[in-house]
Amino acid sequence: MKYCYDCGTPLVEKYLEREGMVQYCPKCEQFRFPIFNTAVSMEVLNPAKTHVLLIQQYGKKRNVLVAGYVNRGEAAEKAVAREVQEEVGLNVHHIMFNESRFFEPSNTLMLNFSCVADSEDLSGMTDEVDRAAWYTLEEAPQAIVQNSLAQQFLMAFLEKNTQ
Q: What is the DSSP track for 134-159?
């Protein structure tokens, strides 16, 4: 952050006890801590836990995990269930946090979860998703977009849960 989000004045670094150097607005006379987005990313498993759902969105022909932003005041676990329902029409349970990573390109803290869908029926998929398909846990690493954060999350999930 280079400018104050309240007044637009360029920020300077100033020492804050117990915090170190922090951005400071000389006009507002306030310290300004970093602001970033928060989103969830999910390994959605079928009821038998043998397949994972990968989707394509925004006209891109690449498979990714179901994901979406967390609304202000919303718990991340609620965002998981809401996003899966909104995008592919599935109800999920057994929502479990896996790990988090910061995604610099969109200034977003990504929280990765796994969850289990009540069914494999994708007939409730909305127009937010171009395509969705179930992949076996063995097929998914090759099917997901390579060298992506989605792939990193998937691989970490598989390493922890398929040994």
A: EEETTTHHHHBPTTSHHHHHHHHHHH
pLDDT, tens only, 6-15: 999 999 999 9
In terms of Cβ atoms closer than 10 Å to its own Cβ (0-12, 13-18, 19+), residue 66 is buried
* Residue 14 and residue 31 in contact, taking contact as beta carbons nearer than 8 Å: yes
> Which helix or strand (DSSP H or E) is residue 24 part of?
strand 20-25
**Residue 2: pLDDT above 90?**
no
The pLDDT score that the predictor gives to residue 163 is 64
Give the H or E element holding residue 98: strand 92-103
What's this model's pTM, rounded to 2 decimal places? Answer: 0.84
102 touches 110 (CB < 8 A): yes
